[in-house]
Each structure stands twice: as structure tokens, then as C-alpha cells.
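Revision sheet: C-alpha cells.
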Amino acid sequence: MTDTAADAIFDAFPEIETERLILREIMPEDAPAIFAIFSDPQITQYYDLYTYVDMEQAEELIDFFDESFENERAIRWGIARKEDNVLIGTCGYVWLRQYRGEIGYELASAYWRQGIMSEAIEAILEYGFEQIGLNRIEALVMVENAASAGLLRSLGFTEEGVLREHDFFKGQFHDMRLFSLLRREYDETP
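Predicted:
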């Protein structure tokens, strides 16, 4: 990113509060929570990594999130409940360019269908458009992941089409649905 106002977001890790959640930096002590999330095959079914089998994988992922922020490539928030600050998922920008970013997210399966991810994504959309100055926010979703596609549609995203064999992970190519939300569309939503 080259925009100087947006570059300031990397001066210190931004924390966001919503009604029920704190979106915060993921710390080394969150490794057990990260491991619990990514060791669940329901979570990794539509994810570009294998189901975790040991704590070291969670620690490496936290290091990756930290390095990506330090190198001003991405921001990945831990999703924690306000009541106890326990990490139950993550969300954020998996990459950022000037005026454009791509989001990614996952949530522990015990918290599905409670509006938690909608609440978290709404907060990072606002942050992306208002603080970073993005014009376009994208999300790539495996074609089979109907729940994620439904979440994005409910947040005002438009499905632009299927990118055939766009990503390669878990030993094979995967078709990905491309979703986007433009700043002007975001501004028009009530």
C-alpha cells in the first residue's frame, strides 16, 4: 500500500469493539484457541490448509499473521467475546493493495449461526472503507461453501462469477467464487 493515510494503520495494531465482540491482535497465548479452531475438520473443510494436528501449527499461523501485519500486507484480527476475551475465530484482510483488499474469516463451529461472523465482518468492512480508504473489498469462497456465500450476500456483496481452478491447495485445483463490495454500494446500504 502506498497511500500515506492508510499506511498509518500499521503503526499499531488496531482494535475494534462491536456490541458483543472485541477484534484484537492475536497473541502467542491464543495458540490453544487457534489450535482448537483449526483442528476442527468442519472449519478446514473449505480452507486452504489441512486440519491441524499439533500446537506448533497454531503457533506458526500466529507468527504468520504477525509477520503479515509487520510487513504491511495484511491485518488479521482475533475475534474474542467481550465477556471473557476468549478467541473464537479470526477475520481480516488477507491482503491489501491501494484501494482494494480481500477478506478472510473463520469461526469456531460452536458459534455458527449466532450472527457473530456478520457482526465481525460488518466491523472490518467499516474499518476497511472508513479507515483504510478501500474502494473495493473482495472475498474468495470455495464453490461448495454455501454458508460463506450466503453470509457475504447478506452483507451486500455481489457474486461476480466463478474463477475456474483459481487456487491450488490440498493437492488439487479449486474453483473459487469471487464476491465484491464497492464503497459506493456500502454507502448506499441502510
